[in-house]
Amino acid sequence: MLEAFLPTDVKTRVSLVHLSLLIRSSSYLFSVDLLDDSSQDNGVQTNQYSSIAPAASPVAQEDPFTTYFEEKVPIPENVNQIFSFRKLWAFTGPGFLMSIAYLDPGNIESDLQSGAVAGFKLLWVLLGSTIIGLLLQRLAARLGVVTGMHLAEVCNRQYPTVPRVILWLMIELAIIGSDMQEVIGCAIALNLLSVGRIPLWGGVLITITDTFVFLFLDKYGLRKLEAFFGFLITVMAVSFGYEYVLVNPNQGGVLKGMFVPYCAGCGSQQLEQAVGIVGAVIMPHNIYLHSALVKSREVDRKNKKDVKEANKYFFIESAIALFISFLINVFVVAVFAQAFYNKTNMDVVSILLKYLVSDYPHTDLFPLNNDTLQVDIYKGGIVLGCFFGPAALYIWAIGILAAGQSSTMTGTYSGQFVMEGFLNLRWSRFARVLLTRSIAITPTLLVAIFQDVRHLTGMNDFLNVLQSMQLPFALIPILTFTSLTSIMNDFANGLVWKISGGIVILMVCAINMYFVVVYVTSLNSVLYYVLAGFISVAYLCFILYLVWHCLIALGVSCLDFGTCVSLLSLGGHIPSSF
């Protein structure tokens, strides 16, 4: 029964005698590729710093970088300083596109709910999640730089057919869930800006249309596209920064909440919100995205010094980008913590009745009771407008529109990279964009047509759970492949990174699984419990399969039932298909 789940390739630098012995002793492995320091197979170069050979396919050499990589950014030569701003500028771009996933409407909603529910007390969770995200993005960037292939392509070559297809489906689910949040976030922003004149479904159609237009900006140059994303991040920073200055939160409370890892007086609601922050910040498809984006720079992977330098500058750029995204998230948390923590529905209704006519269209959003105020992206804008004037509402909507539009575009790139990598697609550019957009947008449009703009919080919770469940399918493979010497050579994870990476991934997955369990138990339905039980069995079996391979990559060779032990005695390290 294990044959269907065993790898299809073995790529390891051993002698011809050792290789023939390996073939005879491992009849369930289907093919062996000899790797040479300067070989080039099917358009993908393999050398001492990139020992993955692509799947044998004559079609693969037609266009080695067909999406986003119509051009590659050159890196300045003959810069001998330890640190060069010119080189940092050349490497700047992929990290900022990656950081947009930390600023999508799902994250913004998690931020505002955190502030309204727990005040400043959970800012340290946001800081910790961002740091963990940076460490995981470092692994993704290193995989792309060292191998010249992104995570989906490596999965395609290293996993056999059945696990590969399952992985693709799981990541597609995560992308669809993220896309729904992003597109609906744009639609809500347009609804707020038009004072309700543009319905939710109309906003979805507008977002789909302008996303197609913006995605072709890279035809005018990759740097121009990256500059456009930088402009959208600036719009978010200015919009949410304006709200921060307007509300003027307690700076001492902000700093205490950020650096003191404690939540005094917190209960289950605050705990669930903390778990929600982790789930919103660390997104599975973003690992696949970042490993692909770094391929847009000209890096000589035959030169160990150049690879090391690229890893350094990409890490610095990612740290700067995530620091900026963290500040923007802090703006949102602090605004709602200062203005709306411990506020009730009656507090908002009293403001509406005091300053506005009694038949104001938003009065029905807030029940006439003293329950704690519940906010989302839509209600958050309304509440800001009630307390701080119409300008606060419109500037909030502009920030949400920028967040939704930018994350929708990067989500589209994620979909293309994942589909091309796992399925080895070689379609025309327009066909790829149309297919990947249709898969993600169709359910979003259906939700927009049949769901009211004011009642989307429940769906947002479900989408967060959906993405949380897919997280292991990005984190486990990235740790597995970056730990293999046969893939990463001198840049494989060391013992410290293997242990710390394993602990971090275990912790993140456990936190997200807790979030899933809490959500399922809140449904209060026996049918849902039974269905969740069946799904959990299949889900955990596949997770165990991935963990099994990951542990082998981390050096626990005894789990390979003797195969890896014999391979280690032959070749000195675990092969790239283990």
From TrEMBL:
Which Gene Ontology cellular component annotation is one that this UniProt entry carries? late endosome membrane
Per the record, membrane topology reads:
Multi-pass membrane protein
Q: Does the keyword Isomerase apply?
A: no
- List UniProt keywords, sorted A-Z: Ion transport, Iron, Iron transport, Lysosome, Membrane, Transmembrane, Transmembrane helix, Transport
**Which InterPro entries did the record assign?**
NRAMP_fam
**From what superkingdom does this record's organism come?**
Eukaryota
For this UniProt entry, which segments traverse the membrane?
A: 198-217, 229-247, 274-293, 314-341, 382-403, 434-451, 471-488, 495-520, 526-547, 554-574
User: Quick check: keyword Iron in the entry?
Assistant: yes
UniProt-annotated location(s) = Late endosome membrane; Lysosome membrane
Picking any one GO molecular function of the record gives: manganese ion transmembrane transporter activity
* Pfam families (alphabetical): Nramp
Per the similarity annotation, which family is this?
A: Belongs to the NRAMP family.
**What NCBIfam families does the record tag this protein with?**
nramp (TIGR01197), Nramp_1 (NF037982)
Q: What is this protein called?
A: Natural resistance-associated macrophage protein 2-like
Q: What is the protein's species of origin?
A: Mastacembelus armatus
